[in-house]
Design goal:
The structure holds 2 protein chains of 2 kinds. By secondary structure, chain A is mainly alpha-helical. Chain A has 4 helices and no strands. Chain A has one domain. Helix content of chain A is 64%, strand content 0%. In chain A, helix 1 packs antiparallel against helix 2, helix 1 crosses helix 4 and helix 3 runs antiparallel to helix 4. Chain A is elongated, with a radius of gyration of 17 Å. The two termini of chain A are 14 Å apart. By secondary structure, chain B is an all-alpha fold. Helices cover 77% and strands 0% of the residues of chain B. Chain B is built from 4 helices and no strands. Chain B is elongated and about 50 Å long. The chains are: A mainly alpha, B mainly alpha. The interface between A and B is medium-sized, with 19 and 19 residues. Chain A: Keywords: Membrane, Transmembrane, Transmembrane helix. Chain A: This is Membrane protein.
Chain lengths: 148, 128
């Protein structure tokens, strides 16, 4: 529905990317951000020497999930590009690290969020960026509250 | 090493209890999502029951840890407990801000997550 010429009837309406199914998407992103973040914090603080590359990478992945959660929840002209960058990094990351972890397992002696294409997290890290990209595309195509 | 620790007998019933409440809540939310209905206040009350039980768990775990009978993987265990405590309130607030069927899906996933983390506490109690 257009808002031309009329004041917004519901000023508390959530932004496009956090509305409808987007609310579920943001929740799952948030849960993954917390899960990956908490786990990698423990790993980096306690066991960094065991697998520095894997654990630092997990930390970076967790940070990107946090960024994606925030960007999708807030949306708007500033946050939407951030959301795009975050979901694309996640997709590239899970595909690249997933493939490398299977081909050159000695590079990752300990599992990261992205190892085995997100196997340790029920493949949620693989599915989520795909859904994120589809959802960002969908909500930027002139739907209600679409692009500004 | 502290692995191979024995699970305190009091912990399993607590996990079963919280898990049952959360799965009931998840099933209820799922049913409402299927019928295109939003989250209602009664569901939040059931979530409140789960929260109260989680606080009881926190106290029990604290007492056990203080008397040297706590879990093996300490940081992960406490991470799970604190996270479980936060998931439902955050999800409830997030769901209530836009009350469509999707709010029911949000509650369903949040309650299922708490149930899963409860199950994980059993595993990390005996070893990382």
């Amino acid at each position: 529905m257009s808002v031309h010429g009329t004041p917004r009837t519901a000023p508390s309406t959530p932004p496009a990317s956090a509305s409808g199914p987007g609310r579920v998407l943001v929740l799952v992103y948030g849960l993954l951000a917390v899960a990956a973040g908490a786990r990698s914090a423990v790993q980096i603080l306690r066991d960094l020497h065991e697998a520095p590359l894997a654990y630092v990478l997990s930390g970076v992945a967790a940070a990107v999930y946090v960024l994606a959660t925030v960007a999708l929840a807030l949306d708007g002209p500033r946050w939407r590009p951030v959301a795009w960058v975050a979901v694309v990094i996640e997709l590239v990351g899970v595909l690249a690290v997933g493939a490398i972890s299977l081909q050159v397992p000695e590079l990752f002696p300990r599992a990261t969020v992205w190892s085995g294409f997100g196997q340790g997290y029920g493949y949620v890290p693989l599915v989520l960026p795909v859904l994120g990209i589809l959802w960002l595309r969908r909500t930027s195509r002139g739907g209600p509250g679409g692009p500004r | 090493m502290r692995s191979g620790r024995i699970l305190e007998p009091v912990w399993t019933p607590l996990v079963v209890l919280v898990g049952a409440v959360c799965l009931a809540l998840a099933a209820w939310a799922g049913w409402r999502a299927v019928r295109d209905e939003p989250v209602i206040l009664k569901q939040l009350l059931l979530g409140g029951v789960a929260e109260a039980l989680l606080v009881v768990q926190l106290v029990v775990a604290g007492v056990l840890a203080a008397t040297g009978r706590g879990p093996a993987d300490v940081p992960t265990f406490w991470g799970y407990l604190v996270t479980t405590l936060l998931v439902l309130p955050f999800a409830a607030a997030w769901a209530f801000a836009e009350r469509t069927r999707w709010s029911s899906v949000v509650l369903l996933l949040a309650a299922a997550t708490v149930a899963f983390l409860q199950y994980r506490t059993l595993q990390v109690w005996v070893g990382p």
